[in-house]
Amino acid sequence: MTKKMREDLNRCLAIVENSEIIPGVIIEALVIAEDHRSDFHPGIDPIAIGRMFLARLNKNQPHGGASTIEQQYVRVVTGRYERTMFRKFREQMLAIMISRRASKTSIASAYLAIAFYGTEFVGIIGLKALFGGNLKNVSFQQALQMVVYLKYPRPRNPTEEWNDKISRRTGVILSRLESGCYYSSKQNLSSSSDL
Predict the structure, then answer these.
(1) Beta strands in 48-194 (DSSP E)
(2) DSSP H or E stretch at residue 178
(3) What is the pTM of this model?
(4) Residue 37, exposed/middle/buried by CB under 10 A (0-12, 13-18, 19+)?
(5) What confidence tens digit (pLDDT) does each residue in 42-97 have?
(6) How far apart are CA 78 and CA 109, in angstroms?
């Protein structure tokens, strides 16, 4: 392991150890929206990697979505976003190493505590701004909508088009959850209508 990689690993682990704990409902929404096979992989998702590889072979197919929560966390902590195979491989190795040293819940919580949700909405401060400071009162639907901001960050002045994207993505995830495509340890998560 290179010195820089060890430094990145230590920085990732330090943030996990020192992050404010995010309520479980928000973590559950993150797992369902971004990494629904999280319980079944070691920090990288071989099924998603295979799907992405096949999509790249068939250029007419949309691709993406192969990064796990651990990989997304590594990307945010290291600030490395270049679109290269080396960066992706390095990110995967760090994700596996972090997963061996920290729980999936603590990694997800640390990721949510530093993630970019949109203009003026970053990390735990951004989450508290979105929900009035008390994250313990956030409903599953509110948490899911906020997690969708990771894919479609909130612009300074949200447009109707952006709101439609958020609604569509949230609806797709809820539909898949209700149909059993995604596993959730929570009961009746999608039955409330407080979005």
Answers:
(1) 116-118, 121-122
(2) helix 160-179
(3) 0.85
(4) middle
(5) 887 777 777 777 777 777 655 556 789 999 999 999 999 888 889 889 999 999 99
(6) 17
